[in-house]
Write a structure and sequence with these properties.
The chain is of the alpha/beta class. It has two domains: about 1-40; about 55-175, Glutaredoxin (3-Layer(aba) Sandwich). Helices cover about 45% and strands about 20% of the residues. The chain has five helices and seven strands; from the N terminus they run H-E-E-E-H-E-H-E-H-E-E-H. It has helices at about 1-40, 85-100, 115-125, 135-140, 170-175; strands spanning about 55, 60-65, 70-80, 105-110, 130-135, 150-155, 160-165. A five-stranded mixed β-sheet has the order 5-4-3-6-7.
């Protein structure tokens, strides 16, 4: 009788672990599917050429991103009202501290703003240590920005290596921008 009870409990525990594993796998599949659905309209990540980017910064200086600059590039799009974007700033600052401008160009582009003051306030309040470029509606259309934050990693020839949206950790940004 005791042996039968022990066998019964073993089966129950094994079934619980299998059920838990199935649940975890289903949750992961759901999130992967949702992420793919969110990214469906973004620029292709199969080495498609990135659109041109020539925008003024908050001081009125024009910054132009040209293909073939011989360095990896992160183009980060945010909106000044975006809470998730505010939480991303420390990760951008840490990435800049880790990688020199010669190794990695980082372009931070503000979209969905009415007055430049909104972008200035965002940069000051969040402690953003990178120059902010003032994007326009055409910029959002060219880069297929549908949500914030959105970012693209470009290779040395200005082709899209990867794209993503939403919060990324410092390690996530490091991983995506590292030269492989």
């Amino acid at each position: 009788m005791m042996h039968a009870l022990q066998q019964h409990w073993k089966r129950l525990r094994a079934n619980r672990w299998r059920a838990l594993l199935v649940d975890v796998l289903l949750i992961l599949l759901f999130f992967q599917g949702f992420a793919a659905w969110q990214k469906r309209d973004m620029l292709a990540g199969s080495h498609a050429a990135a659109p041109a980017l020539a925008l003024p910064d908050l001081q009125g200086n024009w910054v132009e991103m040209r293909p073939g600059q011989s360095r990896r590039t992160l183009v980060y799009f945010f909106a000044p009202w975006c809470t998730v974007c505010k939480h991303s700033v420390p990760h951008l600052n840490a990435l800049r501290a880790l990688r020199s401008p010669e190794e990695l160009a980082i372009h931070v582009v503000g979209l969905s703003w009415q007055q430049p003051k909104e972008l200035e306030t965002f940069a000051r309040q969040t402690g953003l240590e990178l120059p902010v470029l003032m994007g326009a509606q055409q910029t959002a259309r060219d880069w297929k920005i549908r949500a914030f934050p959105t970012y693209y990693v470009l290779d040395e020839q200005g082709r899209v290596l990867s794209s993503d949206l939403g919060l990324s950790t410092e390690w996530g940004l490091r991983w995506r921008t590292w030269a492989w």
